[in-house]
Design goal:
Elements lengths: L9 H7 L11 E2 L6 E2 L10 E2 L2 E2 L9
Antiparallel strand pairs: 1-2, 3-4
Length: about 60
């Protein structure tokens, strides 16, 4: 059975958890369509990267 050896203060607990915060992911505007995408990736909406067509993106038939 686990027995707590000593109580951890609120300050010490807060210092331990100081690195647990979530950060907002970085996004940039696509140069072709203007949608927000991750930097250095092909736009999944228009298929362009650095003003060059990389992939064909079309409407999906349902």
């Amino acid at each position: 059975m686990i027995v707590q050896q000593r109580r951890v203060s609120k300050s010490r607990k807060g210092m331990r958890r100081s690195h647990h915060a979530l950060s907002v992911p970085t996004t940039v505007a696509c140069s072709k369509c203007g949608k927000q995408i991750k930097p250095h990736t092909v736009c999944s909406y228009c298929g362009y990267y650095k003003n060059k067509k990389i992939i064909n993106v079309g409407k999906k038939d349902a």
